[in-house]
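Exercise 7.
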Amino acid sequence: MSEARSDCIFCNIVQGKTDTVFLFENENLVVFRDIHPHAPVHLLIVPRRHIRSINDVGEEDREILSEAIWVGREMARMEKVDRSGYKLLYNVERGGGQVIFHLHMHLLGGWKR
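Solution. The predicted structure, written as tokens, is:
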């Protein structure tokens, strides 16, 4: 974990420095729509605290990770994809598809099958 970074787009978003609309927020997390969606429902669940990647998660971050999963489940329900199915996904490092180096979990769903 590290302090908020002025060059990190997600740090700026969680600090309210952009016009991003939050679908959910509390003292630890914010949720907003991905601006480049890969599914009909594509939300980002982002810790307010700057954590670079899953590889940088410390023991003190366990609660944030479990809270992110819980919030993801609730957001899937709110977006009405809980019954049809959804994915919760972390991309880890460049080789794993991570392009923004501020920990975030994707909620993807809403496909018609």
